[in-house]
Amino acid sequence: MMNQMETTVHYDNGYDEYDYMMQEEEWDRDMLLDPAWEQQQRKTFTAWCNSHLRKAGTQIENIEDDFRNGLKLMLLLEVISGERLPKPDRGKMRFHKIANVNKALEFITSKGVKLVSIGAEEIVDGNVKMTLGMIWTIILRFAIQDISVEETSAKEGLLLWCQRKTAPYRNVNVQNFHVSWKDGLAFCALIHRHRPDLLDFSKLNKDDPLGNLNLAFDIAEKHLDIPKMLDAEDIINTPKPDERAIMTYVSCFYHAFAGAEQAETAANRICKVLGVNQENEKMMEEYERLASELLEWIRRTTPWLENRTPEKTMSEMQRKLEDFRDYRRLHKPPKVQEKCQLEINFNTLQTKLRISNRPAFMPSEGKMVSDIASAWQGLEQAEKGFEEWLLTEIRRLERVDHLAEKFRQKATNHENWASGKELILSQKDYETTTLTEIRALLRKHEAFESDLAAHQDRVEQIAAIAQELNELDYYDVASVNQRCQSICDLWDKLGTLTQRREALERTEKLLETIDQLFLEFAKRSAPFNNWMDGAMEDLQDMFIVHTTEEVQSLIAAHEQFKATLPEADAERQAILGIHNEVQKISQSYGIKSSFINPYSTIATEELLNKWEKVKQLVPQRDGALQEEMARQHAHERLRRQFAAQANLIGPWIQARMEEIGRCSLEIGGTLEDQMTQLKQIEHVIIAYKPNIDKLEGDHQLIQESLVFDNKHTNYTMEHIRVGWELLLTTIARTINEIETQILTRDAKGISQQQMNEFRSSFNHFDRKKNGAMETDDFRACLISMGYDLGEAEFARIMMLVDPNATGIVSFQSFIDFMTRETADTDTAEQVVASFRILAADKPYILIDELRRELPPEQAEYCIMRMPPYAGPGAPPGALDYTAFSTALYGESDL
């Protein structure tokens, strides 16, 4: 009868239910012959039932008697299932008891268990075997059936769980649920694996099974709330302990520890989510700090670059140029790196937020990447205009200084010439002179008028120079204008003094002709003297040139002047001959008159001295021109030296840019291969920096030499600087893009093959090869990848990849979309579920529970940010973990 019962009692729950039950048929037959097994089952099943019945405030003493009326059996089923059974019959008649037991059996059957040969009458009659079989069926259904490890269930799942948990322990080899547990080490290993604080496994002895078993049973009862269901002596004294008893007791360990593991898993998930949130917040704070510092630097620097107040002197403008060079060499490059790093940090942060399903980071007002880029653009615009203005001002001041010095020289010469002329012209000495003296005065006045006409050009030159100084905004233009006005006023006054000439002409009729030789001397010496004055002035005239051709032009003009010297010397000899003739006549005819020429103020000694001065100035002018030619040759060498380097560096920078572009578009290798290539390129770029520094040094020499043009190259230092900064920024951004792709790939579990497929698809539909797809190209790409797109669906996708409606889909946006489509990530619902486990299914969680289940840092993080729970029935201090979890993913207003 018992064999038949044991081989036919099973239940159907939709699996290949418990095929092992049929395999146990042989064990069951043996059990029927072994009273020890029945005794073990009786003790174990009784303890198991009481572990649940005590929750309802009752227990059983005798398993076959206490279930006979069906009341405690129905109560047991209600406790372990959490469901209400039909109201029991309260009568004490046999049919009342049978009715209650039938209600219990019907409930068991409703749970998918197919009962065969177990009837209510056998239970009511106190049949031990049937009662134990029924309890075992209940244990299987409610304590063991739901155990699942790697798609195995029930007995196999429980056995696999035991094997895995005890695998690291010596002398423990769990192969079954009977003899593998006799020495007690397997029970101790299960406890130590989950609660190492409760026992020291290294001190256990395999030869002390009684001590091992009692230790495990006592610890389980005291610390794990698992009642003592087995007797150590029964297990040791039985050759093959009862499998059902062992399984029942071991299942209690599974449920005790599985709950703890579930709570630990939930806590780990929460810690992971909170850790990501804390790291993101730190990155946000760091971005805000760096952005504020960079914007403040731009705010301070831009007004300085926009200031166009000119300085008065060349040295002050040179100092401004040196300050600007320091800005370009020392102050700006670190800020270029900071700006690039800020963009990289922002992109990395946004990628991490997308990967973890967090809302995008929105910086404070005015601190967006676009705001920084706009401010930076304004800075560079001001910088470009500032450098152009500086060079223009230096050229202007150079010209102004030259003209000012030229004005002073010409004005001084003219003033020296005009000194005393007004007094002479206003004298009335002719009223008391002799006829000869009168004629001399007349001729002297004619000579003065000739000299006055010759000085007309000089006065006009002085006025022209003063006008140009006004136009060039010379800082001391007031004194220049005053001096020029004084010269012009005197000139006008000298030109209007005709009264003296009229008086001399009236008196001339009364006088005899003066000595023609003195007159001829005066007429010829005055232009010659004026020519020498002009020659000396020209020979001492300062010049400013920028090319060898201009110097050569000055040399040619000087050579032409030197060619006129023989003719001038002949004129000098002729003038001296006149003077000698006067001396000869005077000596020949015994004239005792003064040898001072009455018609001219020019003495022969003055002509001789000026001629010697001219002869000295000619070689000096030769030397000055040759020095200037050498200087211009040196400038030309600087131009060629700069051009040679610039013509190499410019194409080199372009080649590296193209190499970076090719590397970023390669598909064949892995992202790590691309990263390696880019790092190598970055190393090459960094190693090339000394060439840029050397070119900067050559450029500084050129500017210090005031060389402003270079016909040997189309590259300026500004071109090279902009290209170099763009190269540094491009390699850093490209490396960051690859790092972001690696981060996305690893976080989302995307394979390298998938990443290559994404890139291949993107490159194919990137028609313009500019790193972006237009809307129609993106639609065609999705269709080629198997998407069935309607207008509404495509509009939804475009909102994800192009939130600003630019009509362009970047590669990063494409990758983010594809990874969202192909990978799983933590969600707000998962975090809520994890908190619910820690809160024991309550809709709120307490501060003590957070501190008990989470590490201190994460626990305090939650306590500081989690809002109070506003629902009904919550104790003081209850916190709302649902609102907190949704806020982490941007799904609430917290």
Automatic annotation (TrEMBL):
Domain Calponin-homology (CH): 39-143, 152-258
Location within or outside the cell: Cytoplasm
Annotated TM spans: none
EF-hand domain location: 753-788, 789-824
UniProt protein name: Actinin, alpha 2b
The keyword Disulfide bond belongs to this UniProt entry's keyword annotation: no
Coiled coil spans: 273-300, 438-472
InterPro entries: Actinin_actin-bd_CS, CH_dom, CH_dom_sf, EF-hand-dom_pair, EF-hand_Ca_insen, EF_hand_dom, Spectrin/alpha-actinin, Spectrin_repeat
Family matches, as SUPFAM superfamilies: Calponin-homology domain, CH-domain (SSF47576), EF-hand (SSF47473), Spectrin repeat (SSF46966)
Main location: cytoplasm
CDD domains: CH_ACTN_rpt1, CH_ACTN_rpt2, EFh, SPEC
Family statement drawn from the similarity comment of this UniProt entry: Belongs to the alpha-actinin family.
Molecular function GO labels: actin binding; calcium ion binding
GO cellular component: cytoplasm
UniProt KW keywords: Actin-binding, Calcium, Coiled coil, Cytoplasm, Metal-binding, Repeat
